[in-house]
């Protein structure tokens, strides 16, 4: 299912499974960005719920138009608002003008943008890995994870997985090529 199709299903409001699909697609992204911003587990849960509630109110009648901006940017704005509202609540400072000013500053903050982009890339990698996991053998996937993702030495990976060093290189190449294609499709589907 494409990104635009999912957003249309959520906006329509008549498909009970749409929000489950939305959460399955974006839940971990939201949660990871919260953790990257220093929130504890309970706060991550609260912010995730706040984001979903904000989207629930905003989505009826929503029409995704990529010419007006990316959904990625829109989602980042909503998540950032929720994070800063939560931080202000924890401090006992829930004054709206301060929250809006803090959020405005955070949105222009290069570090905040870098954090969001890093989580967005990880989000795509996680989705792509889930997609391709059934397409490769367990040893190839393990070799890829240890070598390409964990940065371990090829000889060390080969010994641990029980394959030759050349096979480790080949596994990395095959999995990486497939992941790249899947990620490219995911990004294209987002519009």
List the helices and strands and how they pair.
Layout: H1 3-12, H2 18-36, H3 41-58, H4 71-91, H5 96-108, H6 110-132, H7 138-149, H8 154-161, H9 165-190
Helix pairs in contact: 1-2, 2-3, 2-6, 3-4, 4-5, 6-9, 7-8, 7-9, 8-9
Features:
mainly alpha; 9 helices; 2 domains; 191 residues; Rna Polymerase Sigma Factor, Chain: A; single chain; Arc Repressor Mutant, subunit A
Net shape: globular
CATH architecture of the largest domain: Orthogonal Bundle
CATH class categorisation of the largest domain: Mainly Alpha
Query: What is the assigned CATH homologous superfamily of the largest domain?
Result: RNA polymerase sigma factor, region 2, helix turn helix motif
Terminal CA distance: 13 Å
Number of helices: 9
- Helical fraction: over 70%
Give the structural class: mainly alpha
Following the backbone from N to C, one meets helices and strands in this order, namely HHHHHHHHH
- How many distinct beta strands? 0
Q: Report the average pLDDT across residues.
A: 85
The stretches of 5 or more residues where confidence is low (pLDDT under 50) are none
Radius of gyration: 20 Å
> Biggest β-sheet, characterized?
none
What CATH calls the topology of the largest domain is: Rna Polymerase Sigma Factor, Chain: A
Content of β-strand: under 5%
Number of domains: 2
């Amino acid at each position: 299912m494409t990104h635009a199709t999912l957003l249309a299903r959520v906006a329509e409001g008549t498909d009970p499974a749409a929000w489950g699909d939305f959460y399955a697609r974006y839940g971990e992204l939201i949660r990871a960005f919260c953790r990257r911003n220093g929130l504890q587990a309970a706060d991550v849960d609260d912010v995730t719920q706040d984001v979903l509630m904000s989207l629930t109110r905003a989505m009826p009648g929503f029409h995704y138009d990529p010419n007006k901006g990316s959904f990625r940017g829109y989602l980042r704005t909503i998540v950032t608002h929720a994070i800063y509202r939560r931080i202000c609540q924890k401090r006992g400072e829930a004054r709206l003008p301060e929250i809006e000013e803090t959020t405005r500053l955070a949105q222009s903050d290069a570090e905040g943008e870098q954090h969001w982009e890093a989580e967005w890339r990880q989000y795509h990698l996680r989705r792509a890995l889930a997609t391709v996991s059934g397409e490769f053998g367990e040893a190839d996937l393990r070799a890829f994870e240890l070598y390409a993702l964990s940065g371990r030495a090829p000889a060390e990976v080969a010994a641990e997985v029980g394959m030759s060093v050349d096979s480790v290189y080949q596994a990395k190449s095959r999995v990486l090529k497939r992941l790249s294609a899947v990620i490219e499709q995911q990004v294209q589907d987002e519009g």
